[in-house]
Design goal:
By secondary structure, the protein is an alpha+beta fold. The chain is built from four helices and seven strands; from the N terminus they run βββββαββααα. It binds calcium ion (3 copies). The site of one calcium ion has 8 residues, from loops.
């Protein structure tokens, strides 16, 4: 019995696959009766890469399993726009019981955009003199600032926390830079 998922775009990576599975096996010797989980980076064409193999008897209980990005990397899975999962439950000879179920499948992409502290106007992870020029660029020409620092949020320059970046932020900017109070 084989269940194949719809198509997923996982090209951004940082994926966590989670599902609940039911697996009642009366023969667990040799691991030949099983619920096999595979993934393809190339739609139905494959190749299908094994990412989990469940071979133990869970009785009447549902169990949860998760596969994270490091595990996918270790399995040699390339993350593309055309991913599919498939689950295969099989009963290899000698004939025995394999009752398998799948539920609560979720595929999550965890976004880890770096967050930068107030005043770090060039988004290099530190607040220092290198941020002065970008700060004044943000004050004087916000469009030019956004163009030059596309990954930065101009509100990093809102040093007094009033929701806008303007002349009122200059004193708090230098106070913080000089070792004083920071937002
Ligand atoms: Ca069997
Ligand atoms: Ca900086
Ligand atoms: Ca402000």
């Amino acid at each position: 019995m084989r269940l194949t998922s719809s198509l997923f775009d996982l090209s951004a990576g940082n994926v966590l696959i989670s599902y609940d599975y039911f697996l009642r096996l009366t023969n667990t010797t040799g691991g030949v009766d099983r619920l096999l989980v595979e993934i393809s980076s190339n739609d139905l064409a494959g190749p299908w890469i094994e990412i989990a193999r469940h071979t133990t008897n869970g009785g009447l209980n549902w169990r949860n399993h998760q596969i994270d990005q490091p595990a996918l990397n270790a399995a040699g899975v390339t993350m593309t726009t055309a991913m599919r999962l498939r689950f295969t439950a099989n009963d290899t000879n000698p004939q025995s019981i394999n009752e398998a179920g799948l539920d609560a499948l979720s595929i999550t992409q965890i976004s880890c955009e770096p967050r930068f502290g107030p005043g770090d106007m060039n988004c290099d992870g530190a607040f220092n003199g290198g941020d002065i020029d970008p700060f004044f660029l943000a004050l004087g020409d916000p469009a030019a600032y956004t163009a030059q620092f596309p990954k930065c949020d101009i509100l990093l320059g809102d040093m007094n926390g009033d929701g806008s970046v303007n002349g009122g932020d200059i004193d708090p900017f230098f106070a913080c830079l000089g070792g004083g109070v920071c937002p």
